[in-house]
Design brief:
The complex is a heterodimer.
Chain A: E1 2-6, H1 8-15, H2 20-23, E2 41-45, E3 65-68, H3 73-83, E4 95-97, H4 99-106, H5 117-131, H6 143-147, H7 150-159, H8 171-180, H9 190-204, H10 211-214, H11 218-230, H12 236-241, H13 250-253, H14 258-270, H15 277-291, H16 299-302, H17 312-322, H18 331-343, E5 357-358, H19 359-366, E6 381-387, E7 390-395, H20 423-428, H21 434-456, H22 464-476
Chain B: H1 14-20, E1 28-31, H2 38-51, E2 57-61, H3 64-73, E3 84-86, H4 87-97, H5 108-124, E4 132-137, H6 145-154, E5 155-162, H7 175-181, E6 183-186, H8 195-204, E7 228-233, H9 237-254, E8 260-264, H10 267-278, E9 286-289, E10 304-308, E11 317-322, H11 334-342, E12 345-353, H12 359-366, H13 377-380
Parallel strand pairs in B: 1-5, 1-6, 2-3, 2-4, 4-5, 7-12, 8-10, 8-11, 9-10, 11-12
Helix pairs in contact in B: 4-5, 5-6, 8-11, 8-12, 9-10
Classes of the chains: A alpha/beta, B alpha/beta.
């Protein structure tokens, strides 16, 4: 990695391909001490930018990423989208990151889901199926609806090591992106999705997430761990039957011929169990999995019960994917395998972005009376980068329905507390210091004065615009 | 997920891989028990030949239902469906082409003789010569020696797969003749039949004592997918159908995407069963294969196949139902027919009957409970009543 502490003028020079003198100050930081630089910006390159040989025009020396302090992020993005109109959206070309992400870039690791690959793929497919309405079949499911799920974005964050301590790093940016792009209400709300994702991240973290802190019942935890380590439900079953709400012999039925398992499944789901809704939904998914453990081929059995147990399909996917010999990757003509290919594709922070726009810039573009127009790769979808390398695919263009401005508490990354960029932004003073504001006002005043001078004074050169102005003035006189 | 057709290297065991490695320039006969992968290897051989720029091949089968079944899997191997034909179709087309069409008698056995005689005459006259680079024959044990002779004349190379234990048609056994003429390779293991189904099949087969049993050579994942065999006596065929419909309701849920088979030994019984099924919730899922109603292509969306037991030859089903099984007693080679029928089931086999089953089948089914205690006098006779004293 190569870094250059810089101010905005330096960056504008590089943008204008006048980089040679400035690039002399470039450093290989080796470790992260450079991230503590007091400079306004830290320009970052994956490999050393080389100046063009003498006599040749300078090539593009744009950095791969620009590190900006969280409190300056929104204002900087607003500035860069104004001065760099030839790079719109700017974050389609250069990542703008905070110091935390910059540290992440220093420790860059290959995407990895460990033993959870199948569970992740199954959970994504299960969410896509749950959201897909009446025509629910894996064979009719294409890649994009799967990659548009919350689970997909979460899984990508998990693979890129953004998930720590049971916290969900995409919750805030995903919600913000949905709000900005005016997505319709989600059938599976955050509260329904959060528990399976907690289990997933808990399993990924090993034993560091405890039941108490996660709010997930011991039965669900233990069952998932047993499925993963021992291929079948054993000791954990007692945690359920000890409640007296589920008969002990049910497990025996689930070890018999498949027809018997189907009958047991239907009998249990058709009779009220007295279990809490979360455990009941989990049990529905678990029982479906036990009909053909790891096969993920009994989706149809759960469909009649989705109103009663809205997350049953998610739990089914998770349980099916936790089996060491799960067949999830092969279902739907290798849909699971394709998802994993994309989830595990390397996308270092210090590389050109691969998506349409970062959520932080999306906020600047759309959170205004006249949203700025910009190009997307697809006419129907927008790929929003929530965190470096973590996309969310959403329907696009947005509808004409009015959308509420993001609430004050909603941040773009969960780490930064940005405020809307309009009058309230300055009034509340949350994003920039008074000195910076004063400097910006002075810049604007100087620019206005210069324009007035040009319009009033005699032409000092022969360029077309001034000639035109002069002709007009002569006619007027 | 159906495992009927396999095309990946990891799905082949070492014996199967050896067969795939056999030279394409020689003739071979591959023998193996039901479910040993013979038909898959035959199709892989066809794929290999086509891929090696030897496209003029033909896959010959004995029954129309088997033709349709193999055609349903042929796309997995890149073999055009038109290259999979019955012997009868192949023979009549060839005779028509040389202007020697024959009128076939209605009797099945006689018609086979007429057809093969006509072909041999045209071959002897030089009007029909080698037509294909290779002729691939499935269920070769069911072909007459003369038919095999004709097929070998039609192809530059011959590749056949067979199992003598599954020969269900009268006539001389062609396998010994083939074994003397071409190199024979054996497949020792099978993957289709669950252990309980193997036990019944072993009870039916007339093996030489040195032959390993199906149970001993089974690679079926019994722990993952426990198998069942249910003999189901009822008073009438209608009651059998009631039970069938109840079981189908569970099975289509338990085995999504898998074929379920329904068969009767006798055509008159089958007609009643088909009528009940067509008036049931499963009407839209049926593929009915009978000579009376015609044959249709197998379709993954219609997973319930209904046919005569003879027509089930070469097919396999996750769950197989034999109704009116007492009708088995009406057929020659019935023990072989029953063996063939039982071994169509992978996981679940139901045998419904309203009359007595053949004794050999009763005996085979009894093997499912080998440790049943000999009952004593208390169970045999009613207790003496006090008032007799």
């Amino acid at each position: 990695m190569w870094a250059l502490p810089a101010d905005r003028q330096t960056f504008l020079d590089i943008l204008g391909r006048q980089s040679l003198p400035h690039l002399k100050g470039i450093l290989d930081p080796g470790r992260s001490h450079l991230l503590e630089s007091s400079a306004e910006l830290l320009l970052l390159w994956a490999s050393e930018p080389v100046s063009s040989p003498p006599g040749l025009p300078n090539g593009e020396q744009l950095p791969d990423a620009i590190m900006v302090r969280p409190h300056q992020m929104r204002e900087f993005i607003a500035w860069i989208t104004t001065v760099a109109g030839g790079y719109r959206p700017f974050t389609a070309f250069v990542r703008i990151i905070d110091p935390e992400c910059a540290e992440h870039a220093l420790e860059s690791k290959a995407p990895n889901l460990g033993k959870l690959e199948d569970a992740v793929a199954a959970l994504i497919i299960a969410e896509a199926l749950t959201l897909s309405g009446a025509q629910r079949s894996v064979s009719g499911l294409s890649l994009l609806p799967c990659e548009s799920t919350y689970s997909y974005s979460f899984a990508r964050a998990l693979a890129l090591s953004y998930v720590h301590g049971g916290k969900d790093p995409i919750a805030a940016p995903f919600g913000l992106a949905r709000k900005l792009t005016r997505q319709p209400p989600r059938r599976l709300g955050d509260e329904l999705l959060s528990t399976p994702l907690k289990v997933l991240s808990g399993l990924a973290a090993g034993s560091t997430v405890t039941e108490r802190s996660s709010g997930v019942t011991p039965f669900i935890w233990e069952t998932c761990r047993e499925l993963q380590s021992e291929r079948e439900v054993k000791r954990s079953w007692r945690l359920l039957t000890d409640t007296g709400l589920v008969p002990q012999q049910l497990l025996g039925e689930l070890r018999g011929p498949r027809e018997h398992r189907v009958k047991a499944f239907e009998r249990i789901l058709q009779s009220p169990s007295g279990l809490d809704p979360l455990t009941a939904s989990f049990l529905a998914g678990l029982l479906a999995d036990q009909i053909g453990p790891g096969s993920f081929e009994h989706i149809d059995l759960l469909l009649p019960y989705l109103n009663q147990y809205p997350t049953a399909l998610l739990w089914y996917g998770l349980c099916a994917g936790l089996h060491p010999d799960s067949e999830v990757q092969q279902i739907g003509n290798c849909l699971g395998r394709r998802l994993l290919r994309d989830l595990l594709t390397a996308d270092p922070i210090l590389s050109r972005p691969k998506y349409d726009i970062a959520v932080s810039e999306l906020e600047v573009h759309l959170d205004r009376e006249e949203p700025l127009e910009f190009r997307t790769a697809s006419q129907n979808y927008i790929a929003v980068e929530l965190l470096p390398g973590v996309p969310a695919y959403m329907k696009w263009p947005m509808t004409t329905e009015p959308v509420l401005a993001p609430s004050k508490g909603m941040s773009t990354s969960g780490r930064q507390g940005e405020l809307p960029l309009q009058s309230s932004f300055v009034e509340q003073g949350g994003g920039s210091s008074s000195a910076e504001r004063q400097e910006a006002i002075s810049d604007l005043t100087r620019a206005v004065e210069r324009i007035k001078l040009i319009l009033k004074g005699p032409p000092d050169n022969s360029d077309a615009i001034d000639k035109g102005v002069d002709n007009k003035r002569r006619k007027k006189h | 997920m159906t495992d009927t057709w396999w095309v990946k290297q990891g799905q082949l065991d070492s014996h199967q891989k050896k067969i795939f490695a056999l030279s394409i320039k020689n003739d071979y006969l591959v023998k193996g028990p039901p479910g040993s992968g013979k038909t898959n290897l035959l199709l892989l051989r066809g794929k290999q030949l086509i891929g090696s720029n030897i496209p003029d091949i033909v896959v010959v089968v004995h029954t129309r239902t088997l033709q349709e079944f193999i055609r349903s899997g042929a796309p997995n191997y890149g073999i055009p469906a038109s290259k999979i034909v019955t012997f009868r179709k192949l023979a009549t087309d060839l005779l028509y082409r040389v202007g020697a069409s024959v009128t076939l008698p209605s009797n099945f056995d006689t018609s086979r003789d007429v057809l093969v005689d006509a072909l041999q005459a045209q071959i002897a006259a030089g009007r029909i010569q080698q037509e294909f680079s290779c002729v691939l024959v499935d269920e070769a044990q069911d072909f007459l020696p003369a038919e095999i002779e004709v097929l070998r004349a039609l192809g530059g190379r011959f590749f056949g797969v067979a199992d003598s234990r599954q020969k269900i048609y009268k006539g001389q056994d062609s396998i010994k003749q083939l074994e003397n003429a071409v190199k024979t390779v054996e497949l020792p293991f099978h993957y289709r039949n669950g252990h309980n189904i193997c036990i019944v099949a072993d009870g039916l087969a007339k093996f030489p004592t040195t032959e390993p049993t199906l149970l001993a050579t089974s690679k079926y994942p019994e722990a993952k997918l426990p198998s069942t065999v249910d003999p189901l006596p009822f008073s009438t065929l209608d009651e059998q159908c009631d039970e069938l419909l109840t079981r189908l309701d569970t099975q289509v849920k338990a085995y999504p995407g898998e074929f379920i088979g329904i068969a009767c030994p006798r055509g008159e019984d089958l007609a009643i069963v088909v009528d009940r099924l067509r008036n049931s919730p499963f009407a839209g899922q049926l593929v009915v294969q009978t000579s009376d109603e015609g044959y249709e292509a197998f379709d993954p969306q219609r997973s319930i196949c209904v046919c005569k037991l003879h027509s089930a030859k070469g097919l396999e089903f996750r769950a197989f139902h034999i109704l009116a099984a007492e009708g088995l007693k009406k057929f020659p080679m019935q023990r072989e027919l029953t063996f063939m029928g039982v071994t169509r089931a992978k996981t679940s086999l139901c045998i419904y009957h309203s009359g007595d089953l053949p004794s050999y089948l009763e005996g085979a089914l009894s093997k499912l409970n080998p440790n049943t205690p000999v009952i004593g006098i208390e169970e045999l006779l009613d207790a003496d009543e006090e008032d007799e004293f």
